[in-house]
Every structure is written in C-alpha cells, then in structure tokens.
Amino acid sequence: MADSNLQEIGPDKSLLLVDDDEPFLRRLAKAMEKRGFDVETAGSVAAGKAIATARPPAYAVVDLRLEDGNGLEVVEVLREKREESRVVILTGYGAIATAVAAVKSGATDYLAKPADAQDIMSALLAPEGELPPPPENPMSADRVRWEHIQRVYEQCDRNVSETARRLNMHRRTLQRILAKRSPR
C-alpha cells in the first residue's frame, strides 16, 4: 500500500492536526488514523500551541490561517520543542510569500486546500530533501480560480461589488461566475 518513494511512519506515530474547519478536521483525523497515525486535534492556535508544548508530536499538519491567529505560531513552538518533527502547512490562500514564510519557520512542506489525506501523507513522509510525488487528482485550473474567487468573496463579507473591485473584475462577470456551480 505504501508508495515506493515514501518512508514508513516512524516508531512515534503521533500526529497533531490544527484546523478551525471542524468538519474537515474530523474527516482528516479519521483518514490519518486509518493510515496508522495516532492523531490529536486542535481547533485553534492556542490549543495547537498547548499540545505542541505538552506533547510535541513527530508529525503535524497545521492550517495557516486560523480564527485566533497564524498557524506559523504553532510551527514555531513545535520547532522549539521537537526540532525533528515533520510539519506540513495547509492553506486555502496559496501564495509564494506564505509558502516562503512557512518553510522559513520550519515547515517540511506547504499544500493548498483542499488537499486530500493521501497528498498530506505523501508530504509528511517524503524523504528529507525530496519533493513528494505529484497529486493523483490535482485541482483543475478552473477549480483553483473558482476557489480563489469564493475565498475573496467570503473575505469581503459576500459583497459582490467589493469582491469584483479587489479581483479587478467587472461586477456582472463576477455575478455570472458566482451563479454557476463549482467546476471539477
């Protein structure tokens, strides 16, 4: 079952998942438990830092933007308490600047949401200095664009005019995009 270029989970199978999206956190925790990890979850930066301090895990998956702060704070505590832990940053706000910040703070890898459990496991277990294999089913360019528009729309409190201005897009064009179903 294991991919040939992936390492096995080490003797310490502890995995910390930090995300404020409760349904996603539950699904990911269940999927990672099925793959052999001993999972502990946190729904905030504060809870993630507390677990990282008390029981620093061998592995961690941390959302970059949480309601109470930045997930990089959890990564910094993990690096302080357990330097060799392997950390993957997840974010729905993929940008080069945040990827660089994540890696500088000590993350092993950086994945854009929605990442599935197999992509996350590949990133966690990729041999040191090697990139994990490409995802089996990456999002289409249309889907990535749609996700980005939806995120900006939510950040603008569902204000179409403000979203269109920030995306440098005509308001009617944005309304047509928002009225359609998400692409695959």
UniProtKB/TrEMBL annotation:
Q: Which UniProt keywords apply?
A: Activator, DNA-binding, Phosphoprotein, Transcription, Transcription regulation, Two-component regulatory system
- BP GO terms, sorted: phosphorelay signal transduction system
Gene Ontology terms for molecular function = sequence-specific DNA binding
Task: Please state every residue range assigned to the domain named Response regulatory.
Answer: 14-128
According to the lineage, what is the superkingdom? Bacteria
Q: Does the keyword Nucleotide-binding apply?
A: no
Q: Which residues carry this modification: 4-aspartylphosphate?
A: D63
InterPro entries reported for this sequence: ActR_PrrA_rreg, Bact_response_regulator, CheY-like_superfamily, Sig_transdc_resp-reg_receiver
**NCBIfam families cross-referenced by the UniProt entry:** ActR_PrrA_rreg (NF033791)
Q: What does this protein's UniProt record list under function?
A: Member of the two-component regulatory system RegB/RegA. Involved in transactivating anaerobic expression of the photosynthetic apparatus. It is a transcriptional regulator that is responsible for activating expression of the puf, puh, and puc operons in response to a decrease in oxygen tension.
What name does this protein carry?
Photosynthetic apparatus regulatory protein RegA
> Which species expresses this protein natively?
Shimia thalassica
